[in-house]
Amino acid sequence: MLMAVPAWAAFAAAYISWLMSPLAIVIVLSVVVGLGMIVLFGYTSDQKAIGIAKDQLKAHLLAVRLYRDQLHVVMGSYGKVLRGTGRYLKLAFKPLLYVIIPITLMIVWLDRSLGLTAIQTNTPFLLTVKISKSTGFSQIGNEADDTQEAFNDARIELPPEITASAPPVHVSDENEIVWRLQANRDGAFHVKIIANGETVTKTVRVSSQLAQVSPECLRGHFWERMFLSGESALPADGSVDSIAVDYPARNISLGIADYEMNWIWLFFILSMVAGFIFKELLGIEV
Predict the structure, then answer these.
(1) What is the pLDDT of residue 15?
(2) 80 and 169 in one domain?
(3) Contact at 8 Å (CB) between 135 and 239?
């Protein structure tokens, strides 16, 4: 005989499921970061000097309103407003660096989970390999022949969980080869690409849950790798320039009339709101 599930148990299960959703993660993260930003700004800034600079700006702006019929007073007040603004920005610059740098790194890292979705099982996806236009010289020194050979002979070795659902497409103008693949179960799988006698590997993440993915594997391009790739760089002298998986972009549902938003914009808005609330509660000058 089946036992009825208590209402509190159903509510708890739904609540836990919501806590694991991207929307809940962004909300909690925004509140925590908003508090952290304000506290860090308060500890790393000269609060007294910032308070004085803000009061002086208010006084100069008030003078503009009170003496608007006296041109020399208004012009002098505008000059003082500009100088006061420069003084305030100088006081706030260093604390803002302490706040912005770690948040930027955090956003780059989290975007690989919250900005993209993993590949779904039994759903076709594309893997694109770009062959370098400079693959090294053959014995006769013909670089173009080496590039063409690597382009024509490139192939992939798939794990048992991933199969090719169509023949590869060669895009000669871009030196790219595109495979359409499909996975039959969740997991992190390694696809091997063999070109010009060289073997490189790309990880493909398949999951119906929130998962961290790396959309592209690159050769060189240090700053681009910092923002796009979570994998080691491809060999600098190798034949493969990049390997990309077309992970779908994720937009977070707000639960309001099917409205969706990129998580970075949602995080930015919520963390600013949380920051202003904590600023007032903690009495920190910003």
Answers:
(1) 56
(2) no
(3) yes
